[in-house]
Amino acid sequence: MPKSLYAHLKNHLREVKALHNKDINEGFGSVELPYALQRKYPYATKEFIWQSVFLATTRYFDKVNKTEKDIICMKVHYKEK
What separation, in Å, do the N-terminal and C-terminal C-alpha atoms of the chain show? Predict the structure, then answer.
């Protein structure tokens, strides 16, 4: 990764972490993990380390678990100078 992007990525991660903390406080912010990991680490689904770096702007409803989850989206948005 070019060094010129380090500061942009660092700022983006700060924003994602702030949004994640807000989601957690509102009762959301969990992600899907493979079954064995979810069973071994039951609280990991809400830890920041497992969150997606590039988030969507909406949530989805998990019909199996009857919970609203964050959508993982690999669309990158950045501002050009």
Answer: 18
Residue where the block lists tokens 């989601």:
23
Q: Which of 7, 80, 44 is nearest to 15 (CA)?
A: 7
Structure confidence by residue, pLDDT tens digits, 57-72:
777 666 666 655 554 4
- For the chain, the domains span 3-72
Answer whether 53's CB lies under 8 Å from 73's CB.
Answer: no
Residue 34, by phi and psi: left (phi above 0), alpha (psi -120 to 50) or beta?
A: beta
Selection from 9, 16, 5, 22 nearest residue 55 by Cα:
16
